[in-house]
Amino acid sequence: MTNPEGAQLTKQDFEALARFRFGIRRYLRFSEETVREDGLTPQQYQLLLALKGFPGREWASVRELAERLQLRHHSVVELVNRAQAQDLVRREAHPDDGRAVRVLLTPRGEEVLARLSALHRDELRRMHTVLTLPVWNSAPPEG
After folding, report:
1. Is residue 37 part of a domain?
2. Which residues form the signal peptide (predicted)?
3. Residue 141: inside a domain, yes or no?
């Protein structure tokens, strides 16, 4: 089997890919179980994280969140509605664009996100070896 660049993948390459994929799935399972124990859906946690981690500011528009979460606009609207009902986020009018709405974390959302993100950080530290990018044994093609 060859990859798009033409270099053959070795048995070690397949093992590295499988180990990395296993690590990703294990982390996602941990995340799903952890946030559900706290009364959130995985998508709600991702929403909170996307808001807090948005580059350069403490808010985002629904359109920006849809891009960050790789969801359709209407799905993000519903996600924000549910998070707002749980007092995790709030909406406010955009001062420069009357058609746009800012989505921000509430104090409760900040607290929940801080607690859950600390657990995620600690799990990532424990999983460091399985989530390290694979080292490829096959040589890259000469070009």
Report:
1. yes
2. none
3. no
Range of the domain at 98: 11-126
Whether the per-residue pLDDT at 130 is higher than 60: the answer is: yes
The DSSP H or E segment spanning 105 is strand 101-105
Residue of 127 and 130 predicted with greater confidence: 127
Report the C-alpha gap between 130 and 22 in whole angstroms. Answer: 8
| pTM for this entry | 0.82
Domain count, the chain: 1
Distance CA 106, CA 64 (A): 18
For position 86, which CATH number holds? 1.10.10.10
DSSP secondary-structure letter at 129?
T
CA angle in degrees (0–180, nearest 5) for 52-63-37: 45
